Amino acid sequence: MSNHQKKINVLLEMAKKHKDAIWSTQRSKVGHNLRSMAYKNNTVKLDISNFDELIEINKEELFIYVEPNIRMDKLVEKLLPMGFRPQVVPEFKGITVGGAIQGLAGESSSFEYGFFHDACLEYEILLGSGEIVIANKEKNADLFYAIPGSYGSLGIITLVKLKIVRCHP
After folding, report:
1. What is the pLDDT along the chain (169 residues), one digit of tens a residue?
2. β partners of residue 47
3. I need a labelling partner for 42 at 20 to 30 A (CA). Which of 84, 133, 137, 164 fits?
């Protein structure tokens, strides 16, 4: 069983245990990019702080599988030595992949590639029902198109298939 699947299993157990509660995500204890987090006070926090890995890189088809809590600076650090980068790299280093999707990140390369989420090919999402689903342009397309800018209200992203581009020294 992969490390990612182990994390999913722990998350699913937590979700089942609190199936009738209102969930929110808990990331790291380090600062965040939002204002007051008081709205999360009466929620069950599902800890996704360890969903921060680059899972796979496909150098031929130019995409990666990446978890949502990896910070952009860490993702770029991992990809650059291999000659790649995400199509859109938010200039705020601390933003996570999930945050860039859920918060509609657009940056200097957006004139060519669109918003950060426009480079996303697929999401793995934990729904409020406790079910993990895959959403892409063919499967659960309504969810795929609704996730960007939804600020986590439709589900918790657990994995992203993301386009990358080659970059030169």
Report:
1. 799 999 999 999 988 887 776 676 755 544 455 555 665 656 677 888 999 999 999 999 999 999 999 999 999 999 999 999 998 888 888 899 999 999 888 777 777 777 888 899 999 999 988 899 999 999 999 999 999 998 888 999 999 999 999 998 7
2. 26
3. 133
d(CA 154, CA 169): 40
* pTM for the model: 0.86
Measured between alpha carbons, how far is 84 from 65 in angstroms, rounded to an integer? 14
Q: Mind listing the domains of the chain with CATH numbers?
A: 3-166 (3.30.465.10)
Spatial separation of the C-alpha atoms in residues 96 and 70, rounded to whole Å:
5
> Could you give the CA distance from residue 164 to residue 120 in angstroms, rounded to a whole number?
10
Give strand ranges (E) for 6-148. 23-26, 44-47, 54-58, 63-66, 84-86, 120-126, 132-136
3-state secondary structure of 126: strand
Q: HSE-up of 115 (CA within 13 Å, CB side)?
A: 12
As a whole number of angstroms, the distance between CA 164 and CA 86 comes to: 4
H-type alpha helices, 18-167: 72-79, 97-102, 110-113, 141-146
